[in-house]
Design goal:
Elements (H helix, E strand, L loop, with lengths): L1 H7 L2 H25 L16 H17 L4 H40 L3
Helix pairs in contact: 2-3, 3-4
Amino acid sequence: MEHLQAFFQNRIIWASVLSWAVAQVMKVFITWLIEKKFDWRRCFGMGGMPSSHTAFVVSMALMCGLQEGFGSAVFAVAFILMAVVIYDALGVRAETGKQGAVLNQLIREILIEGK
């Protein structure tokens, strides 16, 4: 029971979860600004900006640094994890953009130009 209580009192976890939630809610308002409609499903969906995964790991690394010290092994592990997640997210977004361009070209050639 003591372990469970310690888990729920962990400020690093709560800050990370809060950052993730704020990023998810921001997606709703960004969609509203761009598309002029509220889409609450954006709170629960993946993808889009801001990246809730990135917000989560950046918050985690920052809290680890503030709590344990920026020279600690805990911060080093959190920072490396953050770098991997951000690098991977950027790679996925870049590849998705390339695939989107190819699909748009195919649709244009097949449906519009009749090739």
